[in-house]
Design a protein that fits this description.
Strand content: 25-35%
Shape: globular
Order of helices and strands: EEEEEHEHHEEHEHEHEEEEEEEE
Number of strands: 18
Distance between the termini: 42 Å
Strand order of the largest sheet: 8-9-11-18-16
Radius of gyration: 21 Å
């Protein structure tokens, strides 16, 4: 590997080879006139290599992703063998403080990219992330969780028909890989448009910290870094015992009735068409309506709420695996 003699500047701060620096991204002033800052942790090797961004907390209530990046920093995995690793464990500080998904302006930050310099608070922050951070980045792993009560099994999501993304996603070796189109206004779409390879990790649910999902996210990140020759030699990633399941299509099973939800199946398992996944009951002991699997497939998200309403998404099931 070549010893780096290139200048690396982020947010008007220079990070020299072998240095780790915490830089504050100033995003707003609160109504109390208090400045709100997002810490950006930058670790640079003495050797040339790619630049990877590990980000979480785009939705402020998705704590598992925040904990994945926090532990990567705490363990020292963010000190690269080559190249540079940028960690932003908590992007949406507003949402984290309020234990909420959105920005104070009521907007979902992950629907306003690439943002605007003169737009809403969320839009302005998206704009600065795209203008001040992403131009320095080659790869992004952005960590997310399911919405409240909806528990996602650990999975990587990428757009279909992108061989470059296939390669790095395969290196992560998540239990599931889901091909899904980019969503308008998402961070993923914005990165794709400027040629930055972006992996979306989903695992766990909002306002929850799940240790198994956290470790899967950390191990996958180490495998990803190892594939780029960036993994610090002090660490060795573990190869999972089961191969990744590649899902080309999937659908949501929705509640046909309102009532109490009783899950019968384990999240992440394969079920056969016609299997009873659970029941929805009334509170009086007179009604129990079964929830039937519409096809063979893997359950990749499970609603764990005690009460559901008609139309609520309760199970996410694969409908077509790759090469089926």
């Amino acid at each position: 590997m070549l010893i780096s003699n290139k200048e690396f500047t982020l947010l008007n701060k220079t990070i020299i080879p072998g240095e780790t620096k915490i830089i504050d991204l100033n995003i707003a002033t609160l109504h109390t006139m208090t400045e709100l800052k997002v810490p950006v942790i930058v670790s640079r090797s003495i050797y040339d290599g790619p630049t990877v961004l590990l980000s979480a907390g785009l939705h402020g209530d998705e704590l598992t992703g925040i904990e994945i990046v926090r532990q990567i920093i705490r363990r020292g995995i963010n000190y690269p063998a080559c190249g540079t690793i940028i960690c932003i464990p908590l992007i949406n500080v507003f949402g984290f403080v309020n234990q909420d998904r959105d920005f104070p302006d009521g907007r979902d930050l992950n629907r306003v990219f690439p943002g605007s310099a003169n737009g809403s608070l969320a839009s302005r922050f998206a704009y600065h992330l795209m203008q001040d951070i992403i131009p320095s980045v080659d790869y992004v792993i952005d960590f997310h969780a399911g919405g409240r009560s909806r528990f996602n099994v650990s999975q990587i999501r990428i757009e279909p028909n992108n061989p470059a993304l296939d390669e790095v996603a395969n290196a992560f070796l998540a239990p599931f890989l889901l091909y899904s189109e980019n969503i308008d206004g998402s961070f993923r779409e914005a990165c794709d448009k400027v040629g930055v390879n972006y992996l979306l990790f989903e695992g766990g649910k909002a306002l929850d910290i799940h240790e198994e999902v956290i470790e899967e996210g950390i191990q996958g990140t180490m495998r990803f870094l190892d594939n780029l020759n960036m993994l610090n030699p002090n660490f060795c990633s573990q190869i999972p015992s089961k191969p990744t399941v590649f899902i080309e299509n999937s659908l949501w099973i929705r509640a046909q009735y309102s009532g109490l939800l009783h899950n019968y199946i384990t999240n992440g398992t394969f079920v056969k068409e016609g299997a009873v996944l659970g029941i929805i009951s009334d509170p009086y002991g007179t009604v129990e309506e079964p929830i039937i699997a519409p096809n063979d497939g893997y359950i990749i998200c499970q609603n764990q709420a005690a009460i559901v309403f008609q139309g609520d998404a309760i199970y996410h099931i694969s409908t077509k695996l790759k090469d089926e």
